[in-house]
Task: structure prediction
Amino acid sequence: MVAITAPAAPLPWWRRLGRPGIVAAIVMAWVVLGTALHGRHTLHLATSDQTALHDRFSEFYLYIDRIRYSNVFFTGFIDGIRAGIDGLATFLQALISQPSFGRPVPVMGWLGVIAIATLAAYAFGNLRVAVLTAAGFASLGLLGWWAESMDTLALTLAAVLICLVIGIPTGVLIGRSAVAARVVTPVLDVMQAMPTFVYLLPLVMFFQIGVAAAVVGTIIYAAPPVIRLTALGVRDADAAVVEASRSLGSSRWQIVRTVQVPLARRLIVVGINQTILCALSMVTIAALVGAPGLGVVVIRALASLDMERMFTGGLAVVILGIVLDRTTTAASERVEAHHRAGTSARAVRTRRVALLAGGALTVIAVYLSHNYLRFSVFPGRSPGGVIGEPVGNAAETASNWAKVHLYDLTNGIRNVVSYGLLNPLQSLIAESPWYVVAAAILGLALTLAGARALVVVAACLAALLGLGLWEESMVTMTSVIVAAIITIAIGVALGVPLAHSRRADLAVRPVLDAAQAMPPFVYLVPVLGLFGPSRLSAIFAAVIFAVPVATKIVAAGIRAVSPTVVEAAKAAGASRWQVTTKVELPMARHALGLAANQGLIYVLSMVVIGGLVGGGALGYLVVAGLAQSDQHGKGLAAGIAIVMLTVLLDRFTLSAARRVDRTTPGIGGPA
Result:
């Protein structure tokens, strides 16, 4: 007997379209409605106008200012923190950068600082790093920015010391306790994902303009790396060694102190390296809220478009970053080498003698720098120094030459990006009615990222509406998407050759590492030299900032593709281009999605900095809120809007990438 089955019900039309078809339909409807209703209901708000919510934010700011000297929370807690941070920073500045203790010069002049830095570089690293450190510190004075560089170094050291005091114990705690990890990890995620400028205005509200606000902001930005890497090192400590120590009767504290922390030492040093670089980057940015040093030089040069000072100040920041990076990197490499192979007795004796001799010379140098003006104040007038003025003039000449002789190239790039990407996207995203844009974004979120991401996206869009900054948020989103598209294109173009060629990787990776170590302000210098102040300059600076991390992720994803699959494709006669486009890139989709996600996050972190050079929209509003008292409320709302954009784009891209992985054969999905 043959069973008769009813014919299957036809699928609804939207299921028959498939995901690509649904996306195409949403975009097409968006384009049609956006074109028909162009310029209507965009919720435009003039730069000088404020909503009732902005006024309430301003009133809250004024309320905090009124109760600052009477409320016990401020007088007892906040002022105590501020006094402690100010005291530490002032002490370090008195040692190396500012006149102190009734003297017209610091306790230690340039010769003593260079000697101590060189000795420390040799002690923690090697002779080559010591020579680099001596040359680097000397060049800071030769450029004419010795005092400013020492101010930056003092604030960086203050922030790093506090980060280590808080971060290493916290890392040990969450490395040993799953409960503590569940509590602390989301906080670290927020600290790292939140664009740096966003929390400067709230910090000023509580700590006022000055060193304390700058250092607290730096701690928020710089503490997560050392906490995460310390936790990772403690968590990954050899279980057999830990168990052996426990079986011998060691207490939990003894196991931490004598086993887990020593075994985690290499990762802790790497965490310290990352924290130092993050702190230097943030201290430079924090010049906007009263941090002295090189950041002030760069910001003032940006405001006046003084290419000479902009270049020499940025160069000093880069030199300081390279010296700190190489010293701490050499320290981590030294720890790793000692861990693997140990050190011969002869090498230990030779090194000990060299350290003793270097220590004696350092004591003499410190004495001379404390007592003799010529060894305290760096030779050469400041600013300008010995080589600062000619270097700055050369940079300005090169910038003027590039603007004239490379005009066709830069103008072509400007036109391609403006007319090919930026203007069409801005017309669609920022100049369509808000309800059309919101409906399209929600439809794309549901289709590509799923229902769970849809809830987060909807909440973020509602927040942007409530903040009264819809149009500015959409303009910012447009710039971020354009910068992310360029970033991914460059990341793939660079990442694929790096994955295929060991020689190319060895040649390019140091450049990528150096680019990641540079504070974001530095990227503005070459961009302004080529393109001048404009929204495109902000976009290109963000691209330069984001490309290194995107390139590294793409290269890692390509390398992770199964060699068996690649060899099978080659055996079937596929060319190198076909292997890359048909096998490696599709199988590295997760890495590409992660690269897109990180590219967006890094670009968003540059939004406010872009506001300093014509980026406009939310970045400009945050900067205006920091600089103008009548714009505090609107600037605070703009900062919150940037956070909402960050969360929206982060959840959207990550969820979409995971969904692709689950549904793509051979990438964790069903075959």
Q: What stands out?
A: The two ends are 35 Å apart (CA to CA). Residues 69 and 75 are 6 Å apart (CA to CA).
